[in-house]
Write a structure and sequence with these properties.
The protein has no helices and 10 strands. The chain is mainly β. The protein has one domain: Jelly Rolls. The strands form 2 sheets. Strands 2, 3, 5, 6, 7 and 9 form a 6-stranded antiparallel β-sheet that branches. A hairpin with a 7-residue loop joins strand 5 and strand 6. The chain is globular and about 45 Å long. The two termini are 13 Å apart.
């Protein structure tokens, strides 16, 4: 069964990377899969990670294999999660040095059942 877009939004919009950033929380109800595209300007140095929660955000854990250290070649990162079995997600950038401006989009596919 093909899934449809249930969410496609600009999740982080032009936020400074001179200090650490934690995105808003996305509810993944009815989500079967998701993708996240983060991109930036400038020369930031630090790391990204996705964090997941199953208890309404009371506790967060790093999503497996999601940690990416900067700098990387280019100015963007793309995560694709083909099976979503957790309730919430957030994007965390931990700044080390440098600066830049971060933007990220999230696309969730699923159904209404």
């Amino acid at each position: 069964m093909p899934y449809r877009n249930i969410l496609n939004i600009k999740w982080v919009d032009g936020v400074s990377m001179a200090s650490s950033v934690t995105s808003s929380v996305i509810d993944l109800s009815n989500t079967q899969g998701l993708s996240i595209h983060a991109f930036w300007t400038g020369s930031p140095s630090g790391s990204f990670q996705l964090e997941a929660s199953d208890d309404a955000g009371a506790h967060w854990a790093v999503y497996q294999d999601s940690i990416v250290a900067l700098p990387v070649i280019g100015n963007s990162i793309f995560w694709n999660v083909s099976e979503v079995h957790f309730d919430q997600i957030r994007l965390v950038y931990t700044a080390a040095s440098g600066s830049g401006t971060l933007t990220a989009w999230i696309n969730c596919k699923g159904d209404d059942n």
